[in-house]
Amino acid sequence: MSSAPLGPVSDDEELLFRQVHPAFIRDGRPSSQAFRPTLKDEGKLSVARGSVTTAAAAYELYTAGMGLQSAGSWALSVAECREQALHVVPDPLTSPPEKVADPAHAVIDFVPYSKSQREAKGARLAKKALERGRLHPPPPGNSQ
Amino acid sequence: MSKSPFVTLIFRGRRFHEPAMPLESLPELAAYRDLVLAVAKVLFQEEKPGRQRLPKGFEAGFRLVLERVDPGSAVPVVSRLFDDPGSKMPLFPTSDLFDNARDVVERGIAAAAKDLPLPKELTKEILARFNAFGRTLVDDESIVVAQPGKREGAIYDRAVRPKLVLQAQATYEDDVNLVGEVRAADKDAEGFVLRTSDGRKLEVRTPTLFFPLALRSLGEAALVRVRGTGLFDADSTLLKVTMASDVSLAEEGDEQTRPGCPTPVETQVESLKALAPGWYDETSKAYDVPALDWLAKLLKGLLDGFQLPRPYIYPTPEGLARAEWSGAGWEVVTSFDLGSRSAEVTAARANSEELHELAVPLNQPGGESQLGRFLTDHLAAV
Q1: Which residues are CB-contacts of B119 (< 8 A; sequence separation ≥ 6)?
Q2: Which residue, A140, A130, A136, is CA-closest to A53?
Q3: For the segment B103-148, what is each residue's pLDDT rounded down to a tens digit?
């Protein structure tokens, strides 16, 4: 992560793309654990800012660029994070020290919250992401 | 006119214990007949590549009848009718195209079940026709497609069907039975948007006769039940309802008895067994198979005992198993510690900060009931 602190993202309309591991998808439904930090994430959930990148480019960077597994890009809005009292902080990554630069990288800050609060907020965010649907790759046969 | 046994179709599953065919399964017989006929046309074109048209009476000459239903599951014995006793397709005295087509269908199903290459006669156009065959089967049901007089044959079920269809196209069709709320309606487009209980929004195409009810649901936020044909992708994700055959007001209790995840618990748990070490990162381990068997048994008992909807089950990087439910008003997550045989449950109210928690040992008397009651209370509550 970068060292220079940046102010929180404030545009409520901005989308935040989240990559979801294929094992966390069941019948097209992403697990809510994909929308809250894991134990290793130190309370911060990585996302890609919609004002800097696209759902497709974020997916490509994550899979082809970083060599990680993703079933696709889902999205939350900044407003949806704010409703859960979660701040979104820009955290652009540079290379080096990272393997791949990611100027769109940001984190959703869960640090102030307990384990069960994080779980609950993740479940509510997952519900929003599910309603929006997977943004990339688009589902086959999607007429929208 | 004479008859000759053509195929034995053994319907297996809870609905078929009696030697009688449920009426709703009869379309399977017509779909099977259409499938064999389509393959026979391909075989004819292969044998007579110069001919532009089929011989007169080709299609009408293939007449199948349901002769009787034998016991031992529902076993409809399907026979073929002939006008002229002893005659088959006169153009090909040494072999009969329809018998060959029947064998191709059986071989194709057997090959798909084992992920083997399909017979070349099963063209993309033919494979797409499997959309219509097996549509009425549910999870625990199958059709054994066997030679006449035999009880062993190729097993056709809900897993094999998409394997065949998806070799021809990126999507396949299946029956759907959904409960949800209409969120938008467009009479010109002959459709509406249904928001299902798990939060998904699906396009539904519908005949105009169902529009008044759709508009009522839209205006009053009333729950409706939608039956019809759904379009699924290769991951078995429902993409849209291509045509509703019935839209009706949901019955009382439908909110609580919504089916949840379409994949059976046993199948979901099996998929966790298949995860190899390192499935998530270098520290993630494979799951312990007996522990997952315990989980499958526990969940099945909970679902049956408390009439709960089927959860979505996921692995976690920490080695837990996670069951998630989206209720009418609550999002419920249960994390099972397979080592200590315990569970932690978080119920988050969807539209507020309200949060309920439960930690329960499942290796002690009463633990399972405590968990079941907590889940029931939150999944039934609005």
Answers
A1: B104, B107, B108, B111
A2: A136
A3: 999 999 999 999 999 999 999 999 999 999 998 888 778 999 999 9
The per-residue pLDDT for range B11-54, each reduced to its tens digit, is 988 888 887 888 988 999 999 999 999 999 999 988 888 888 88
Copy the structure tokens of residue B57. 């009476």
Whether A139 is covered by a domain: the verdict is no
B198 neighbourhood in chain A, CB within 8 Å: 29, 130
What is the spatial distance between Cα B334 and Cα B320, in angstroms, rounded to a whole number? 10
| Residue A3 in domain | no
Find the domain containing A67 and state its range: 15-132
Count of the separate structural domains present in chain A? 1
Write the residue in B239, B261, B262 that is nearest to A139 by C-beta: B239
Give the span between the Cα atoms of B195 and B153, in whole angstroms: 42
Comparing CB atoms, the residue among A24, A130, A143 nearest residue B314 is A24
Inter-chain touch A124–B350, beta carbons under 8 Å: yes
- pTM assigned to the model: 0.59
Q: Report CA dihedral (A120, A125, A126, A129) to the nearest 10 degrees.
A: 170
Q: Which amino acid is at A132?
A: R
- Does the predicted interface ipTM exceed a cut of 0.90? yes
Give me the percent of chain B exceeding a pLDDT of 90: 47
Taking the alpha carbons of B269, A126, A142, B257 in that order, is the dihedral positive or negative? Answer: positive
Q: In A, which residues are within 8 Å of B170 by CB distance?
A: 140-141
| Nearest in space to B211 (alpha carbons), one of B245, B247, B237 | B247
Q: Is the residue at A102 inside a domain?
A: yes
